[in-house]
Amino acid sequence: MLEELSIRDFAIIDRLSIRFEQGLDVLTGETGAGKSILIGALGFLLGAKADTGIIRAGADETLVTGIISVNDNKCAASWLAEHGLDTEDGTVIIRRGLKRNGRGSIYIQNAPVVRQDLQDFTSTMVEVHGQRDGHALLKRERHRELVDRYAGIADEVVSYGTVYADLGNKRRTLAAMASSEAERLREMELLRFASEEIDAAGLRAGEEDELLDEERRLSQHEKLFASVTQSRELLAESDGAITRLRKARAQLESAGSIDPRLADGARRLDDAYYEIEDIGEFLTTYVDQMLFDPARLEFIEGRLATLQRLKRKYGPTLAEVIAYRSDVASRLASLENWEEGRAGLEEQITVLEADVKARAEILSAKRVSAARKLEETVQSILATLGMTHARFLIRIERLPLSEGKVVVGPTGIDDLEFHVAANKGEPLRPLADVASGGELSRVMLALKTALAEDDGSPTMVFDEIDAGIGGEVALGVGLHLAGLASSRQVLCITHLASIAARADNHFVVEKKLDGDRTVTRVSLLTGEARIREIARMLSGDSSSQVSLNHAADLVAKLGSQRGR
User: Fold this and answer.
1) Mean per-residue pLDDT for 302-306?
2) Could you report how far apart the first and last alpha carbons of the chain are, in Å?
3) Pair 64, 10: CB distance under 8 Å
4) Interatomic CA distance for residues 485 and 489, integer angstroms
5) How far apart are CA 464 and CA 40, in angstroms?
6) What is the percent of the chain with per-residue pLDDT over 70, rounded to a whole number?
7) Whole-model pTM above 0.70?
8) What 3-state DSSP class applies to 365?
9) Which helix (DSSP H) or strand (DSSP E) does residue 304 occupy?
């Protein structure tokens, strides 16, 4: 529900703020007072296209702000959640501005958004009828949605759509499989070659490090032999380290018998002696076993070259080459079982096609039945709105055949559109082609009345729906507006007293002089002020007692029938 609309420097409006309520909010006033400018400002707030011509002369920027209640509006709540936004006590603040240089700004809850986002969000809450480009019902795709909602099959359509999407995915998968047969064979050949090449190498984890160690020893055999031999001789020759340690050990043991404090040093020297002696024996054995095998070195160098080549082709490390071999086996198995997978997929597609077609036929039958009922209801309502000879038809056609087969779409097999003949003798035409704005608005009112229980728009705006009508027809329009307002908020600009008399809230729009400038002002009317405005609408004279009495009687009579 639109709770408040604030406008600054829009057309002839300098500053204006209006608080609206639930029910039927009526705006009246002299022709040219600025009533349609208010609707234009609201349309701007809701996302309509705009240029700098809307900015009040002398101002640098126009700004329109709206406070909208979104309580119990699941669509609005879902949109906010998807965009990471929260409400403030169930309300949302929308601001849209446009500067003289053409730069615009749009905010929802202080979060900047683009105009398409604004339109998507506000379309869940407000519908404007009266400016042709604002009619959601003029969009052909909406016709099917409304009939589905009227038929009570919206959930079935969603379920059908899920199955249809699954069918589409599987068809695309099958097409991709068929078109990539040559690619599949090429890939299998490459994978088999890789598998055979890696298997032929007989790789072993850790092998490369072992080979590098051995290659380093063999390639530097002479240097290694010389170093180890010299170390052994320094330890084991007659005046080497072991002989000297043995002598030092004997001397220190002798000294330890004189001074017990040297006993610990003697024991440590004893340990060192045996450790060095053990090292000497190890070096002797190492030198005796050292062999230089040129053939082994050549083999190792060749093996390392093989490993390096495999790493360049299949992985930066030997471990990754081994892992790649495992992955190759899995991919080969999948590709080799392709025929079996394709056959299974084709079987699934056949089952899904039958399911989708059966569901589409059921949906179509329900749509046709609901459409015929909706046609009768709308046509009967149009008769009460002064369109006695109007005809309303919901044209439902099957999607065109393709190669003799029934074509199904994401919502079924039906192509659906509302058609209207507003006057006797006129041909039926698409709803979007209805020429008269007044007729179009009344068709919208009839549709909305028929769909009232199934339509979730919390706020509906009708701009001069009463164009070209009066008398009993005006009474019928007012009655239907009040009926809609019993379950939602309805904003209506009208010139007819019989509609204004049913208002829950009556606003008057007036032009006034502020210095040397003309500005628009809006006031909420109550009591005698409201009676005077309705008297003006009845006779053009708000001071005539006859007009005042007539206005009072009209408010008393129609006000008591409000919403019936």
Assistant:
1) 86
2) 21
3) yes
4) 5
5) 13
6) 94
7) no
8) helix
9) helix 294-314
